[in-house]
């Protein structure tokens, strides 16, 4: 770095000597001397800031070892901090010395010292003239200086919050009271204090504040710092503040989504309850009720799906996110709901409406008909020549992926309900094999029908052996196309879970269909999803739940 020549060491020594000489400027002589030097001092402080803002805090202290003493003394001189923009420049300099990620006790202590100076500077403009009287009064009441400044910070926060809320009353900016530049300065001054609990009301107010200008009035450093602190659980913010942060600062939303994806893909979870808990904690599903947030998050998920070639972990993340989003949407005040088209503006709206229906909203007796309607609409779309391009096909397929809960129910309904299998099998065939190049989906459909017919003949049997399922299992092991393997594995898994009778060899049969890592992961995912969704009431369901738990422990 070529910054050490900008602020010569001689100047540091000169101004430190002056600061020591002045003290708190209690004599007439020292006050006159301070007054004579204020313009040069302010220029010098600005030079310091211009140098520090390009440097790491640790490097800055190493290169300028006198800087802490100098700034500390100047912060307590009422004539210095009362002159023009010196107070603001001092705060900027202190912020540059603040360590965002303190690595040792020395840096932690330095951060604490910087916070105390900032608290003093933020409150000094109202109180410096009565410092002696206040000190005596505090001592009489038994309060410490720390208590005093803590109360001052709280009062300052309350004052700023009241001022900003009144200026932004009912979302209508009343011009002339608080300038956008002032709001920007307040956001900048908050940077080193962001993790202080007392500052949370001010953070919330700033994030929800909208000035008269068309451009962003809050500093980008402030928005990035709040995002980082929220992501690392260093601060807690209300829902409105988090949503506002993500709406006004796209990088924060992208970072939060990618961070969640990384969490869920890199950690192996034993249940979807755990996945849902981590996801709710991120606040993304709740915030996604705003269409702009939903579409951005979905776009990131879509890209992740493409980059990972449809990785099962990413698919699971997308489907759990969609379920939690639908829950949040259902709980939202009906007066403030957005139309469904706002979330999927470029898709066939009747299909979107059908997929948005949660299974719990419909009687179980209507599920098969609802799935048939979805399948018929989907088939008409896919076979329409205007949506036959690979990009259009992927968009339709991604829509189906998002609402994967209906696909799991389709596979169950094929075995548990009296249904016309053609539509439901086609729906599953499209999901596992969206492309029909070289008649892939057609061939998948033929094989799925054959396996399904075989399974239905065995469904009423009370005693099964490995040999009974050998033909169906052989269909999986002999199929080279991955999509066929996945679809048939799905059917076989559901058959073993929901077929009537007590199949004592169910676990042994599961081992036959999990003979590869790929199929094992798929079966495990299916079991976890079923355990998350299944109703635990009823004797048959209790048997299924028991089998699920045993299998999940061993797989």
Written description of the protein model:
This is Fanconi anemia group C protein. InterPro entries: FANCC. Pfam families: Fanconi_C. One of its GO terms (biological process) is interstrand cross-link repair. It comes from Dryobates pubescens (Downy woodpecker). It contains 29 helices and no strands. The protein has helices spanning 9-22, 28-52, 57-63, 67-75, 78-81, 86-97, 105-127, 131-141, 145-167, 180-189, 200-207, 220-231, 239-248, 250-266, 272-282, 284-287, 291-307, 312-331, 349-356, 367-382, 390-402, 405-416, 421-432, 440-459, 466-478, 482-498, 506-512, 517-533, 539-554. Helix 7 (105-127) packs across helix 9. 70% of the residues lie in helices and 0% in strands. The protein is elongated and about 105 Å long. Among the domains are: 12-121, no CATH class; 179-245, no CATH class. It starts with 8 loop residues before the first helix and ends with a helix. It has 555 residues and is mainly alpha-helical.
Write the layout of secondary structure elements.
Layout: H1 9-22, H2 28-52, H3 57-63, H4 67-75, H5 78-81, H6 86-97, H7 105-127, H8 131-141, H9 145-167, H10 180-189, H11 200-207, H12 220-231, H13 239-248, H14 250-266, H15 272-282, H16 284-287, H17 291-307, H18 312-331, H19 349-356, H20 367-382, H21 390-402, H22 405-416, H23 421-432, H24 440-459, H25 466-478, H26 482-498, H27 506-512, H28 517-533, H29 539-554
Helix pairs in contact: 1-2, 1-4, 2-6, 6-7, 7-9, 9-11, 11-13, 12-14, 13-14, 14-15, 14-17, 15-18, 19-20, 20-23, 22-23, 22-26, 23-24, 24-25, 24-26, 25-26, 26-28, 28-29
């Amino acid at each position: 770095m070529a910054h050490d020549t900008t602020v010569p060491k001689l100047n540091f020594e000169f101004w430190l000597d002056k600061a020591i000489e002045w003290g708190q400027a209690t004599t007439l002589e020292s006050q006159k001397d301070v007054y004579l030097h204020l313009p040069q001092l302010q220029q010098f402080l600005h030079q310091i800031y211009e140098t520090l803002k390009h440097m790491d805090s640790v490097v800055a202290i190493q290169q300028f070892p006198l800087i802490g003493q100098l700034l500390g003394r100047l912060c307590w001189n009422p004539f210095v901090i009362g002159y023009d923009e010196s107070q603001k420049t001092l705060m900027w300099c202190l912020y540059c010395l603040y360590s965002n990620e303190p690595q040792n006790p020395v840096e932690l202590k330095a951060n604490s010292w910087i916070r105390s100076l900032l608290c003093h500077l933020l409150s000094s403009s109202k109180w410096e003239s009565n410092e002696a009287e206040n000190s005596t009064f505090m001592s009489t009441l038994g309060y410490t200086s720390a208590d005093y400044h803590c109360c001052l910070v709280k009062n300052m926060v309350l004052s700023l919050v009241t001022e900003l809320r009144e200026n932004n009353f009912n979302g209508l900016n009343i011009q002339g009271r608080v300038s956008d530049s002032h709001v920007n300065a307040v956001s900048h001054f908050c940077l080193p204090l962001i993790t202080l609990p007392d500052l949370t009301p001010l953070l919330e107010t700033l994030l929800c504040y909208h000035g008269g200008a068309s451009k962003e009035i809050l500093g980008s450093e402030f928005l990035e710092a709040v995002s980082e602190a929220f992501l690392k659980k260093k601060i807690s913010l209300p829902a409105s503040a988090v949503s506002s942060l993500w709406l006004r600062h796209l990088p924060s939303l992208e970072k939060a989504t990618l961070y969640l994806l990384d969490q869920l893909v890199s950690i192996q979870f034993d249940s979807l309850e755990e996945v849902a808990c981590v996801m709710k904690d991120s606040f993304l599903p709740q915030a996604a009720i705003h269409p702009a947030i939903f579409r951005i998050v979905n776009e990131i998920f879509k890209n992740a799906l493409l980059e990972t070639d449809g990785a099962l972990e990413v698919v699971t993340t997308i489907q759990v996110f969609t379920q939690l989003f639908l829950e949040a949407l259902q709980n939202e005040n009906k007066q403030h709901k957005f139309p469904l088209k706002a979330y999927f503006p470029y898709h066939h709206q009747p299909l979107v409406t059908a997929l948005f229906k949660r299974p719990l909203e419909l009687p179980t007796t209507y599920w098969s008909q609802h799935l048939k309607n979805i399948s018929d609409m989907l088939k008409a779309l896919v076979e329409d020549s205007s949506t036959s391009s690979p990009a259009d096909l992927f968009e339709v397929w991604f829509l189906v992926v998002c609402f994967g809960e209906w696909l799991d129910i389709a596979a169950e309904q094929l075995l548990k309900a009296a249904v016309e299998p053609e539509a439901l099998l086609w729906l599953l065939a499209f999901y596992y094999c969206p492309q029909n190049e070289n008649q892939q989906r057609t061939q998948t459909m033929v094989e799925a029908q054959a396996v399904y017919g075989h399974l239905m003949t065995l469904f009423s049997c009370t005693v099964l052996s490995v040999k009974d399922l050998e033909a169906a299992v052989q269909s999986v092991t002999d199929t080279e196309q991955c999509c066929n393997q996945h679809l048939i594995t799905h059917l076989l898994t559901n058959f073993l879970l929901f077929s009537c009778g007590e199949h004592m060899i169910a676990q042994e049969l599961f081992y036959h269909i999990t003979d590869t890592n790929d199929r094992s992961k798929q079966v495990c995912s299916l079991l976890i999803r079923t355990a998350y969704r299944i109703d635990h009431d009823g004797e048959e369901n209790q048997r299924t739940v028991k089998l699920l738990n045993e299998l999940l422990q061993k797989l």
